[in-house]
Design goal:
Chain lengths: 437, 686
Amino acid sequence: MTSDSKIRPRTRDAIIQSLRAGVTPRIGQAHIQVGRADEVKALIRDIDRIGDGGASFRLVIGDYGSGKTFFLNLVRSIALQKKLVTAHADLNPDRRLHASGGQARSLYQELMRSIATRSKPDGGALQSVVERFVSSARSQAGKDGVAAESIIRERLAALTEMVGGYDFAEVVSAYWRGHETGDDTLKSSAVRWLRGEFATKTDARKALGVRTIVDDSNVYDHLKLMARFVRLAGYSGFLVCLDEMVNLYKLPSGRARSANYEQILRILNDSLQGAAVGLGFVLGGTPEFLLDTRKGLYSYEALESRLATNSFAQEGLVDMTAPVVRLANLSPEDLYVLLQNIRHVYAAGDPASYLVPDDALNAFMKHCSNRIGEAYFRTPRNTIKEFVNLLAVLAQNPEASWQQLVGTVEIPDEGNPDLAPIEASDEDDDGLASFQL
Amino acid sequence: MAATLIADGMVYVGPDLPPIGGWQDHEPALIDPTLNVSRGRIDQASENLGYWPSYGRISPESRAAYLEWLAGGRCDPDADIGYVFLFFYGLERRLLFDLRHLPERRSEAPSLIAEVARLRSLYGANGSFASYSSSLLQIAQSLWSDGRACERPPSFDRPGSELPADVRLAVGQLVAAGEPIPADWALAWVTGHPETRLRTPARRCPEEFRHLFCHRYREKFGQGMLLKPNKRRLKISHRPASASFGDEVEVPFEHIPDIAALKVPIRPLQEIAEAAMSELDAYSRLVGRSPEKARTLEGRALLPPELAEVRKSPASERLQRWVEASLGDGDGAAVPASDLMAHWDCARADRMSKRELGSFARALESLGFGIEPDPRFGGGSIREGQKVVLFPLGSERIAAASPAYRASTLLLHLAALVAASDGSVGDAEERHLEEQLERSMSLDPDEVRRLRAHLMWLLVEQPSAAGIKSRLEGVDSASRRLLAEFAMATAAADGVIDRGEIRTLTKIYGLLGFDPDQAYGDVHSLQVSDSWRPAEGPLRVRPQVVGPSGRAIPEPPSAESVPPSGFKLDMDRVQRTLAETVAISQVLAEVFEDEPAEAGRGELAPVTSNTVAGLDARHAALLLALDGRSELSSAEFEELAESFDLLADGAREMLNEAAFERADNALLEGEDPVEVNLDVLSELQT
């Protein structure tokens, strides 16, 4: 993307730092996005539909290195821009959609920790959402000359019909009462409850007077509640991004796998039938997670029939409304354009400040190709990282020539962590970033 | 004569007759009536007959036995061969000595020759007698028969280590006259030739052999072989059994060449004979194993087409009618295996073994039809309830599958597995398979015909993957890769790769020796290839991009598949990617651009009032209170918010929301300290 628009230093720094750390940027993805126009447009339509009170479900399928996480982050930032609240988490053995040992609640906790709004794009915005709801209720109450709590109750009445909705409304009211009475303990209990941090019902009852808590069995119900709630607070909708779905595929127990797939089916059905309001899911996974007929989603027949390509789209005709978005691996040409974009970002959007000419991009790619072969564009993380490092050196040493530096770049080869056995996964919230050789 | 009546003579009787030559005093065949003949005892067992019997020297008991044998009409099958020889001596003397000196008695010759033939047929089991009598017959016929030898049927006897006299004479006569040698004499020549080795098929099935030889001979020589006479003259010799001659009898033929000496013409004849025997091998083995099957359909199936042609039977005609009715005008027809088995004698009622099916296939082939599966082309046994495909054969028959054909069937089998694994074989998939078939250019027309039938069978019968593994042995890895790609392309032919197909593909990958999990990546790669891109709008469909951009399945990622030196960018593609990138960046720019100010379309639109930036009084007051400060700690901010009775985080959301709408940017950033974007602030305050 070589538009002349300047890139804000804060965005530029965030992008460059992420790339140097080998993780995908959480903001400013639009500046380095290469191609994938159809896929991005499809997701923009999803987001618009969520904003209109609809629902969506997408599987983003791509091989390791094809840019799933980047794509998910881009989608997330688009959603934020369109006034959605987003939450995202990587699945791992301790975070699943369905479980009985607390792993589903653990996923929920992670999602709530990551809740972001346009104003707080880096996460931790759950309290902001609650307060915005309360604030707006309060200003309404001020105008109408009634008690804020009655407006809050009135607005939350819609939730009480839903599973867990009654207690949800209670907890939000408790937050308000805490604020009103200066009871910070009550406020923090309310937030803890919303984050799924209560482990027992007894504790919840003592702290908030509610009978239920977020547990393994009602995680999805609470996500639906949250989707309704964010709309009540003035946001457009709620987008949940789940990455590293391959961890479900890697579950050793067939029963655990199919319980999780059943949960996915439920989410998919709700979205197809319009049973969820203002809620979207984007799930990132590898081809085997989808296609493996023994352990993947295709092992679950009901899912297979819903996820399969539209069987009327034959004879080379395709249907993009199907829930699966497939990402191709980057080609060398894609990478070339990506390097151009990175150069552009590094120069803060000013072509006059480009540190290297096009020839240098070519030479750099050729060098990488010689060093690690195809991997340089198939799994481009290290290639990009080293390219940014190269730019950094050139920026700090204006006298250095890129011709000399290109030849000295070392590209470490990288393995595919998706192929690692399940024990190798760690707790880190970005398993990819922490992977090192 | 010693009270014994001898009915029809043919014996020498008298007191004295000198031998023709040799060392004996008397003619051994002469019956001297003066000699004693035993009346009581008869030497049936011929205990004291001796090796060179002579009537004059044998015992009275033996004489009695001899006379009794003569009187009995010379036909007692149990008679000792010595007595037969004794009589035979007389015939030899008469035929080869007396008649040559008494031309007026030549009329006796035919009856004498007939007598030799009669004895030979009675006592031919004795090898020695068979040999002597044959030889005598031959020489006698050449001496005394009327007309030319070649006008008589050849005898096909192989009496000894020499070419039979009748062959030498007959062929010699034909050569001398410059006439072609007819097939039966050519056969007699080659079978009688001492250097010809007749193998079992020729001996076990003489009729078939003769027929086939003559057929092939006529194919090659038409009316017959024409030979130039050679110089050496024919002499027919006979070593008499009778000691009376003392030496060999030799009859020269002045005008007839001796073809026995010829070596050149016999070779093509031997070749024809050898080929005919080979063609009869299978039939001969069947007849050897089960002689009763010689005349059945099964036996007929093993015969070369020329013989099968003339051996039509009601069974074969029934079969032909059935096949023709099944086929109609079509290129092939699937019929139940049980119908097929009704036409064949199978060992088991519910199953046709590989061997039985093989013979059946040959039987059909002799009628001009083929069958799939055919064990000769990789098929196996069939069972009741299964189906087979019949098809018409072309004029060129193939007897064994070429490697290209084997590879093609393997390919089709794999593809059919994939195509059928979604439960049914769709039209698109079937078309894809047929196109593949058309592309099999390296196959003979007959192989293509068979392959089409094979495909029909695959689609009808949908056989399992069993047995494929062994067929895959010896297929190199490049070909395996192609097979995998083809299977993948078949799965994708209808635009859908479903779960059943994926399962089959992983199985096929396993069979082919690839990592089954690689199939998922390959399916994915195929689905993201240019020819399989998602569409842009809801339910919008668009025609497939055909042309160079339609890619086959990419090679699996491997270090060696792209040589490091081969780095080169496709600049056209870079341009396309750039164009797409620019397009999407415009879309994204719109997303990240500020929306029109009236965008407060949430359920909770900011309270409409005349306060700052659409905020309510408290928030507006907070905004104003920020005036001039670029940064404050989170505690300070919280305090400030609470001073207006606001919730800090909620206030921040509200202010930022307003800021995004008015100034396309956040007002408050960062957690601690909270940064205030002063540009935005001033914009909001205006």
